[in-house]
Amino acid sequence: MISYRRQKKFPLLRLPLLAIEEIFKTMHPIEIIHFSMISKRAKAITKNMTFYSKYAIGLGISETMSIAINGTNGLVSCIYLMISNERMDGKVEEYENNGFIQRKVYKYSKDPVEEWKQLSKYVLDIFKRQTIDVLGVALDVFVDQNVSIIDFLKTNVKSVNGCNLNQWEEENDVDEHAAYFLENIKINNELRSDLDTKNVNFDMKIPKNLKELYIKKADWIGYDKLLEIDSAQVSFGTNRISNKELNSFFKKWIAMETHLNLELLAFEFKSLEDLRLFVLHDIPHEVVDEGVKRTLITDRDETEEISGGIDIRRIDGKTATFFVHYTGFSMSVH
């Protein structure tokens, strides 16, 4: 029953399911969750709604644990934030700009990790989600609970579309937990790692068939590991791949022996001239005039008009252009 005006009650739960669904469509996700907690019948009716496909769930594991429910083409975002400040408990903030609406609900907890687990499980159940849209993990915040958090995700989440791994303090060693995470969590589309990996010989599993892979500190990525990667767009920060190994890699790409689906390879290198002299010295290539402009993939599926560059061609006719961009040194396939 819902109160309206003063003393009257509105028998919402007695309405036909289609009528209830129309009312639910006017509610934002946090209202839907709160309604589902009224009773077992309210929860059962909530779970029977059929329009939840428009919602995507995001989870954040950091100093402030978060659960985000995003919908309406990304224009509405409702976020639960687990906090240790009791005075903030129950506070609601709403932000609106150019049609985008964000609502934040602060929830005090003495044990934010455990309460985050319980609420995450409940939200996934209500919105009938097995795949997380975005997962952000700071691996050096709850170090003693990392394994239990990863085990919770493995049990309750089928897969993750986009994942961001990071750490707050550079000196913290999170290699072991990073390896455990990648061994147990299935990532579908994108992995971004801002971890400061300590062991250059550490063998971490890289997910297969990714659209985008970004590794800030890739000193543990050697030639053999590079050949194992099959992501469409690959970006490395520091790495230990030699000029000789790059030469071998590009020859394999030209011969269609590796990375057939590669769209972008971004890596640290000094200059185009050094690439031509020390890597492409025995590979047929063309130095393109600066007056020639082409639209190429430059960063995370973004395209931009690029002048000049150096071209190499694959045996099937595809071209890879090397160029220097504000994001770094890149090879774009077109």
UniProtKB/TrEMBL annotation:
Residues 9-55 form the F-box domain. Transmembrane segments: none annotated. It comes from the Eukaryota. PANTHER family: F-BOX-CONTAINING HYPOTHETICAL PROTEIN C.ELEGANS (PTHR21503). This is F-box domain-containing protein. It comes from Caenorhabditis remanei (Caenorhabditis vulgaris).
